[in-house]
């Protein structure tokens, strides 16, 4: 048995944990990082990275069928499903060195590849090593939720942790869950030649703006994806290659079953009670400073903190607690400026308040401005005119934005920055952007906020006519 004393002990080598470990070590703190699984966590190995690699292959296949309007004869793609998975594996392998144990040891971090558990409020055990730290950071992430559906224990099923290892193309993929993960995987598999049925117990993409989410779902249905909403799953049965899902709206049959009904925070086996760390089913109970309310030596970031479950949120949390842990300065996590995106094609992205939320908060002070992709010259040139930007604004400042359209995940960044910094719409409307770009849709939306008051205002017109008579 050995003892290590350190300033910061980080549990979990996903986005949040790696960011804390690298930042703290490079600024002079003595850091221990404990990870029992793969470096890089869910995002690199079974989440963001492999899903986007698979979506890229699906987008390429789909493009071959949609060239007619650009003068290119459509062609039926020849899809090698196993080769697509090779592309996914190569993508993970190319990024893996950035998250590797060797890289973090190069920063001066002591990396221990064992399971960690508290043995006291200020000590952890990892294998044969005891770690005594001034501060602990729980960055343990989450795992796919497997709901207690009748028969689920007897039926083979996939989750995001196993679907990317599947090398034989599913004949008919049944997706239980209509959130971002389920919808992304549905489109990817449909474009790669599979039949796909999405089964959602409530509303698909229910956390997004209903208007634009509805438009996206309509587009996906047009691609041949069957999406059944308000269909509560009651039981599953069958065997590999022949799965049956019974729901409140009838029976669905397919060859493979993907569960994408949500995620649960990983807190089991950590000895949280021994360390007097308060927690519940949502994660570690923390304050706005991401510090445990019951053990001031413990912080939680990312999924473990019980809030929005996104990789970029974990990275943001890391920056918040670094300020507190290393410099003793007050620092609080906020949520109003945190964006998210569903990386379908077209994509759907959100930051701040949706229209319904903004109306509830701001009432008549709210202005909702729309700018269509069919008004954007670059979108027209590329034949990508589907979609819209909805901007929620109050007193000349954005309070929310929803984008459905090409590159939505990239375009939402402007509004994330604007909301975080309190930027006025006049600044965005006055920006000079290269022409023609999709980014001009953001400028147009901001400009549309002022259009009515400038172009339909009789006082403005009268003033202009007066000035024109008198100014030489």
Automatic annotation (TrEMBL):
Top-rank taxon, per record: Bacteria
Cofactor(s) it depends on: FAD
Positions bound to NAD(+): 177-184, 200, 262
Keyword annotations: Disulfide bond, FAD, Flavoprotein, NAD, NADP, Nucleotide-binding, Oxidoreductase, Pyruvate, Redox-active center
List of residues binding FAD: 52, 140-142, 303, 309-312
GO-annotated molecular function: flavin adenine dinucleotide binding; NAD(P)H dehydrogenase (quinone) activity; oxidoreductase activity, acting on a sulfur group of donors, NAD(P) as acceptor
Descriptive protein name: Pyruvate/2-oxoglutarate dehydrogenase complex, dihydrolipoamide dehydrogenase (E3) component
Organism name: Limimaricola pyoseonensis
Lineage of the organism: Bacteria, Pseudomonadati, Pseudomonadota, Alphaproteobacteria, Rhodobacterales
């Amino acid at each position: 048995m050995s003892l290590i004393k350190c300033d910061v002990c980080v549990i979990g080598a996903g986005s949040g944990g790696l960011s804390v470990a690298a930042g703290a070590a490079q600024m002079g703190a003595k850091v221990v990082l404990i990870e029992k699984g793969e470096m890089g966590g869910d995002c690199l190995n079974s989440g963001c990275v492999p899903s986007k690699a698979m979506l890229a292959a699906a987008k390429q296949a789909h493009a071959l069928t949609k060239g007619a309007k650009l003068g290119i004869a459509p062609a039926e793609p020849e899809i090698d499903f196993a080769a697509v998975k090779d592309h996914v594996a190569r993508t993970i392998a190319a990024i893996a060195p950035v998250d590797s144990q060797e890289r973090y040891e190069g920063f001066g971090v002591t990396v221990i590849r064992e399971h960690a558990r508290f043995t006291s409020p200020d000590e952890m055990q990892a294998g044969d090593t005891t770690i005594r730290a001034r501060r602990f950071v729980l960055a343990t992430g989450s795992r796919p939720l497997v709901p207690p559906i009748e028969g689920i224990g007897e039926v083979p099923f996939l989750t995001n942790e196993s679907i990317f290892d599947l090398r034989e193309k599913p004949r008919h993929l049944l997706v239980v869950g209509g959130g971002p993960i389920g919808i992304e995987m549905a489109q990817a598999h449909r474009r790669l030649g599979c039949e796909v049925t999405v089964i959602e117990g409530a509303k698909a993409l229910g956390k997004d703006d209903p208007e634009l989410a509805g438009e996206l779902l309509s587009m996906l249905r047009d691609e041949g994806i069957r999406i059944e909403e308000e269909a509560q799953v009651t039981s599953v049965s069958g065997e590999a290659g022949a799965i049956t899902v019974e729901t409140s709206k009838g029976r669905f049959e397919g060859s493979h079953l993907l569960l994408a009904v949500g995620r649960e925070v990983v807190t089991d086996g950590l000895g949280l009670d021994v360390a007097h760390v308060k927690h519940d089913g949502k994660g570690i109970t923390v304050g706005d400073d991401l510090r445990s309310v019951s053990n001031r030596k413990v912080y939680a970031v990312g999924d473990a903190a019980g809030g929005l479950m996104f990789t970029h949120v974990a990275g943001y949390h890391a920056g918040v607690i670094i300020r507190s842990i290393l410099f003793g300065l007050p620092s609080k996590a906020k949520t109003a400026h945190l964006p998210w995106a569903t990386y379908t094609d077209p994509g759907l992205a959100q930051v701040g308040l949706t229209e319904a939320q903004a109306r509830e908060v701001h009432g008549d002070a709210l202005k909702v401005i729309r700018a269509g992709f069919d008004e954007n010259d670059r979108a027209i040139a590329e034949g990508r005119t589907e979609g819209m930007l909805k901007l929620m604004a109050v007193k000349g400042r954005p309070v929310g934005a929803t984008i459905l359209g090409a590159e939505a995940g990239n375009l939402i960044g402007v509004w994330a920055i604007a909301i975080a910094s309190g930027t006025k719409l006049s600044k965005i409307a006055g920006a000079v952007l290269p022409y023609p770009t999709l980014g001009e849709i953001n400028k147009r939306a901001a400009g549309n906020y002022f259009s009515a008051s400038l172009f339909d205002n009789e006082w403005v017109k009268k003033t202009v006519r007066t000035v024109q008579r008198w100014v030489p």
